[in-house]
């Protein structure tokens, strides 16, 4: 009991620590900017730079039972922005990872310690996530490191596709490419029925949003569920979900 309490204290201080006293329930967060989180990120007209307003709603508050794997592969207490040290070339804000984890613990209090594994990078299209790419291999490496403590990968949250709405060919090939991505990911993680929760786009960078959305809403792979974000409020840029939307 003392060892587990000590582990929690170290995590709350954001010290690098390997907690061996609880089997973590791992959730991989992958995709592009709306997964990395842009909630509360707007342009500062005085400096003409993107800034995060720092507002963290109750659903996104830190929880001692929710950890995050850092870019340096250390477990720390999870807090917004989850992708601050992952999507380093962009300004990050509130994303879906923490509210999802908090919602799970609210519905299932005995679920255990959740280990979030952020991997999302803004502005990336589905081809950049194909097996063998740097993004894919980094994600697999981070997942494998997360598993070393004896945890179990319980789900993948996937929010991506805005970049694939620019080019018609990319939009038409989105279903084929995303299905292959999911299949390869499950194979490399040795979990053929790993639950994947994907988001159907609320916005896009180009005119072919509906083609990509149709692909996202019509996946016939087992254990792939889709949450439709269409109609949720967007930041002034018309592309990114607001904090309440996340």
List its salient traits.
246 residues, alpha/beta, Rossmann fold, seven-stranded mixed sheet, 28% helix, disordered N terminus
Gyration radius, in Å? 18 Å
Return the domain count: 1
On the 0 to 100 scale, the average pLDDT is 92
Q: Please give the count of helices.
A: 7
Lateral strand order in the biggest sheet: 5-4-6-1-7-8-9
What is the CA-CA span between the terminal residues?
A: 36 Å
Low-pLDDT windows of residues: 1-21
The helix/strand class is: alpha/beta
> For the record, what CATH class applies?
Alpha Beta
CATH homologous superfamily assignment? SGNH hydrolase
Beta strand %: 15-25%
- CATH topology (level 3) name: Rossmann fold
Describe the sheet with the most strands: 7 strands, mixed
Shape: globular
Pfam families: SASA
GO biological process, one term: carboxylic acid metabolic process
Signal peptide: 1-19
Protein name: Sialate O-acetylesterase domain-containing protein
What order do the helices and strands come in, and which of them pair?
Elements: H1 2-12, E1 25-31, H2 33-36, E2 41-44, E3 49-52, E4 66-69, E5 75-77, H3 97-107, E6 114-118, H4 134-147, E7 152-159, H5 168-172, H6 174-188, E8 196-200, H7 209-217, E9 224-228
Parallel strand pairs: 1-6, 1-7, 4-6, 7-8, 8-9
Antiparallel strand pairs: 2-3, 4-5
GO molecular function: carboxylic ester hydrolase activity
Keywords: Hydrolase, Signal
Protein name: Sialate O-acetylesterase domain-containing protein
